[in-house]
Amino acid sequence: MSSPFQHEATDRDAAPQYVLPLVVRIERETPPARTDALETAARAVLTLLSDERATAEDGEWTAAVHAWQDARIRKVVRRARRSEWQRAEALPGITVTGKTAEVRVFPPIPLDGWPKDLSRLQVSGTELDDPEPPPPADPVHPVLWMAPDVAMSAGKAMAQAGHGAQLAWWELDAEQRRAWREDGFPLAVRTASPAEWSRLAASGLPVVRDAGFTEVAPDSATVIAQHPALLG
């Protein structure tokens, strides 16, 4: 399918609007590392996109995923802790665990149709830090490069990382997708240097351009998705 990350007026704007909810577990005593949260969110999106409930013709999530992908691709990250997290885990979805992060992704819902236990959760307050600088990315695996000059909260960056992973997924053929999935969706999220960003921007790799609903200016390039299979 064609990329929905186009922000001029299109027929997609006339379609019912859906959103993909993600919830990150943030306990006060043990918050996740920022980079791990971004990587876990990206893997969560890929896990849902490849799940049989979302891909099978009669899958229970298939219709919602199709409706979501036919409109603007929106992802919203909210935070939960303790009993809030337990209630979120009771809803249909998939929990993906990283080294320090837990992220639960849910099937798409209408923009104004959030379940009560998710609508109560806060969007703000997802400021996270890395205790130590992340190591260099392994070039054997996909890398989602964050723009060096676009400041984002951790929640916003998690959504953008999910966009980048989704764009890479769409560019792969069935065999490449199968191999990535069977390998456990290895990937890294790193912030590019200005020089790296310029090189990547000219490479023809998938670029996420934000619609500008929150935090960043419309049409801001936020992520470039570098998958080894997409390199010439």
From TrEMBL:
Catalytic activity field: an N-acyl-L-alpha-aminoacyl-tRNA + H2O = an N-acyl-L-amino acid + a tRNA + H(+)
Gene3D superfamilies referenced in this protein's UniProt entry, alphabetically: Bit1
Keyword annotations from UniProtKB, A to Z: Hydrolase
Gene Ontology molecular function terms on file: peptidyl-tRNA hydrolase activity
Enzyme class: hydrolase
Keyword Secreted: no
InterPro entries the record matches: Pep_tRNA_hydro_II_dom_sf, PTH2
Enzyme Commission no: 3.1.1.29
Protein name: peptidyl-tRNA hydrolase
